[in-house]
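Example record used in the benchmark description.
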Amino acid sequence: MNYKLLGRSGLKVSELCLGTMGFGTEAGWGADKDTSFAIMDAYANAGGNFLDTANIYKLGTSEKIIGDYMSNHDRDYFVLATKYTLKDNTTNPNASGNSRKNMMRSVEESLKRLKTDFIDVLYLHIWDDITPIDEVLRGMDDLIKQGKINYAAISDTPAWVVAKGNTLAELMGWSQFIALQVEYSLLARTAERELIPMAKHFGMTVTPWAPLAGGALTGKYLKGDKGRIKPESKRLDSRSEAITKVVMEIAAELGVSESHVALNWTRQQGFSCIPIVGATKVDQLLDNLKTVEVALSDDQLKRLNDASAIELGFPGDFFKEEAVRVNSFGGFYDRVEKR
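Model output (C-alpha cells):
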C-alpha cells in the first residue's frame, strides 16, 4: 500500500484503514483472538499501519485484543486510533458523554486495555449536544501535551460544531482536529451537504465508516446471501438495490469484486478520504486490500454518481443553479479555478 498524510498533520497512514469493531465474539458475531491476530498480520504484511477501534467495541474486547497483539509487535509501526464518548459502564452519569471528565477516564481505561503508553489518534465518538466544544478541544490538547495522545479527531458531529472547534483551536493555539469520521458510501451521501465541504476547507481527512454499507454494496443480499442487515433497512430498499446493481455491473466489467468498486468510489471523490475496512475473516481483508490495485474510469464514476445522486438541499443546490453562477461569476464560472 501507499501512504497518505492524515489531515494537515505529517502523520503517514496507509490508504486503507483497518476497522476492528468486529474483534471479539460478544453479541454472537465477530472474530476470535487468533483470527483477529491473523487479520492484523495480513494487514501489516500488506503495508497497512492504520488501526481503528473504540472503547466500546465488543465491550472493550477489541482494544484488549489489539493490546495483546501490540505486546508482541512493533508498537511504533502502527498508527492506533481509538474513541471516547460511549459508555463502558453504567456506574455514574459521567461515565459517558463528551465531557473532560469522561474523556480523561476513558482514555486511561483505553490505555490499559491497549497496553500502551500513548494513543496516536483520539476521536470524539458521537456528539452529545451538551458539552462545549472548547472543553473537548482543551481536554484533547492537554492529553497531547501529556503525551497520552498524539492527534485529535472527531466523529459523528455536526459540521458547524467541528468548524467552530477548529476555528477556536487555531485562535487559541490548541491542536486542531485532523480527521473526520462519518458514515459515507454510495448508499449514504448526505455528508456531502455540509460535513465533507467543511472537512475540505479545514484540510481534514475523511475516514468513512460503513463504506460498504454493512455489506449491502457487495451485492450479497441480491445474490441471496444472508447477513446482519434487517430486511426493513434502507440499505436494502429499492433505491439501494438500484445503486448496488450498478456497482455489480461495473465490477463485472472490471473483473473485480463489488467491494473494490464501492471502496474506490469513496477514494476517488477528489478529497482526502481513507475508508475504514472492517473484517472478521482473513479472506475478507485480503480481498478488500486488492482495492488499491483498481481504478474506476471517469465514465464509471459518473454512472455511480448518477445512480446514487442526492439532493443537496439549500444552499448546495442553490449554488448550482445557472442563474446564480452567472450572477456570481459574471459568465466566467467555467474559466475560474475552483477550490
